[in-house]
Amino acid sequence: MGALARLRAGLARALVRAARSRERRNPPLADRLLRLALRTEPEMGDAAGALVALRRAGGDRLAALTAARRATELFPQASDAWYLLGEAHQGAFKMREAIEAFARALDLRDRADAAFRTGLLLRRESLHAAAAAMFARAFAAGGGPEALYENAVSLWSAGDREQSLRALEMWGTHFVDGPARVADARRELERGGPRPDQLP
């Protein structure tokens, strides 16, 4: 990063700090400061996420989506921009568009968060095999045991019970009481699968 880019990055950070100190007292001013910060940043930084969060907190999901979309226009090679757009689409109940945005984020960089969110969205569409593949990808990218568990649930729903039980066994190795957890999880799956609020 050259001297001018560093100067712009520093100015953008200062604008973000100024916006955050004003977001409760004067949201319109905070919005203007964040839009300026977003235009000033030489690369994807904190401005877009702060602007999306501010607009979402104000109840304007479509304005939040507009801000996230602008980030992808300014920084089309930034995985974080596309992930932010996926979150904004999901917040605006545009699930298909969210899947596409998360997929773009994954194209640019393998990341557990985007793979995991994509898996959840695919499962909502009853695309269980595709969801299982995404949860496996999330685990491979460092998503932890939760990704393994979701992989097992989706494999079970896809009809691949052998692989589902293997995933459950792997999931259980992450806990001291793993065998008991695996037994409980298997019973839940055999009863028809846990509700979302029952997932570990």
Explain what you see.
By secondary structure, this protein is mainly alpha-helical. The chain has two domains: 78 residues, Serine Threonine Protein Phosphatase 5, Tetratricopeptide repeat; 91 residues. It has eleven helices and no strands. Helix 3 runs antiparallel to helix 4. The termini are far apart. 40% of the residues are buried. The C terminus is likely disordered.
Q: How many domains is the backbone divided into?
A: 2
- Fraction in helix: over 70%
Low-pLDDT stretches: 195-200
Give the amount of beta strand, in percent.
under 5%
Shape: elongated
State mean pLDDT (0 to 100 scale). Answer: 93
Helix and strand pattern: HHHHHHHHHHH
Please summarize the sheet with the most strands. Answer: none
Descriptive key words:
200 residues; 11 helices; disordered C terminus; Serine Threonine Protein Phosphatase 5, Tetratricopeptide repeat; single chain; elongated; mainly alpha; 75% helix
